[in-house]
Every structure is written in structure tokens, then in C-alpha cells.
Design a protein that fits this description.
It is a single chain. Helix content is 35%, strand content 18%. Helix 1 packs across helix 2 (25-32). It has two domains: 8-48, Winged helix-like DNA-binding domain superfamily/Winged helix DNA-binding domain (Arc Repressor Mutant, subunit A); 62-141, 2-Layer Sandwich (Alpha-Beta Plaits), CATH 3.30.70. The chain has helices spanning 8-19, 25-32, 36-48, 81-92, 118-129, and strands spanning 68-76, 97-102, 109-115, 134-141. The protein has a four-stranded antiparallel beta sheet with strand order 2-3-1-4. The longest helix has 13 residues, at 36-48. By secondary structure, the protein is an alpha+beta fold.
Length: 165
């Protein structure tokens, strides 16, 4: 994956796409102050270089029947690579697990899950606690989310990308 040196226009494109993945190329180009063909070439170059992972729609879980969101802090009985990988593959196959993060600290993994209701949350917690090599599980139910932004902050005026000089 070849990294491109990001200039102000690239950073503007990234910021605008992150805020609205459905923005038209014409509007994206207008905001960046360039014409549509070079804008599209820049977007393709940013995708190829790995700055853009993909595009998706953010869905509201409640109308789709998922009333509960919770985090699970999971400790394993071993931190061997085989055990860690097996756990990641296992929870990766569960559709209710929306995020899986290996963590540094007292817990090995932090998961974000969705459930239809508290009974379903309890089923998922039981399923998790009975998984191979799981030593402990602590759950935290979300009451309200006041901020949820995708991606990272992108400042147009920032200089080099991380790792560039």
C-alpha cells in the first residue's frame, strides 16, 4: 500500500467524505476548490493508499429491533497468539458483536455488542462467559450515547500525515 503525501486538498476531501460518504464528486470537488476529474483521481489515490477503508450507511439500531447496546470487558486465561486469534475469530462470527478491540490493561478485549433486549443481552453474556479460554467478563450497558463520530479528526491545515516528515 503506497502512502501519498497529504496536502490541504486531500485533507479536505477526507474530512468531507468522512462527514458525508454520499456526497457527490461534483460537490466534493467544489468544496475542495478543484474540478471533478482531479477530485475523483485524488479520491481513488486515497482509497488505494489505504486512507479510505470503505463507505457505509450508519443504521439506527432501535427500529431494527436492537434496543440494548453494551460493552463487554473480557479477560482470557492465556495470552498466547493461538488463544487470542481463536477468540477474535469466535466473536468475529457473532453478528451482535459490532466491534472487537484487543486492549492493554486488566482486560484482554473490549467488545461492543447490540442486543434485542436485556434477556438477549444476558444470553450473549452467558455465551461469552462460556467461550473457550474466557476467564472473566464484565459488562457495561449503555444508557445514552451523546457523541458518536466515525473516523478521526481531520484538520485541513495539518502538515504531514503521521509517520511522514
Amino acid at each position: 500500500m503506497r502512502r501519498v503525501k497529504l496536502d490541504r486538498i486531500d485533507r479536505r476531501i477526507l474530512r468531507d467524505l468522512q462527514e458525508d460518504g454520499r456526497i457527490t464528486n461534483v460537490e466534493l470537488a467544489r468544496r475542495a476548490g478543484i474540478s471533478a476529474p482531479p477530485c475523483l483521481r485524488r479520491v481513488r489515490a486515497l482509497e488505494t493508499a489505504g486512507y479510505i477503508r470503505g463507505y457505509h450507511a450508519e443504521l439506527d439500531p432501535e427500529p431494527l429491533g436492537f434496543e440494548v447496546s453494551f460493552f463487554a470487558l473480557v479477560g482470557l486465561d492465556s495470552q498466547s497468539e493461538a488463544v487470542l486469534t481463536a477468540f477474535e475469530e469466535l466473536v468475529g462470527s457473532w453478528p451482535e458483536v459490532r466491534e472487537c478491540h484487543m486492549a492493554r490493561g486488566p482486560d484482554d478485549f473490549v467488545l461492543r455488542l447490540v442486543a434485542r433486549n436485556t434477556a438477549h443481552e444476558n444470553e450473549l453474556t452467558t455465551k461469552l462467559t462460556s467461550a473457550p479460554h474466557v476467564a472473566n467478563v464484565r459488562t457495561i450497558q449503555v444508557i445514552r450515547t451523546t457523541k458518536r463520530l466515525p473516523g478521526v479528526p481531520v484538520d485541513e491545515d495539518d502538515g504531514a500525515a503521521p509517520g511522514e516528515m
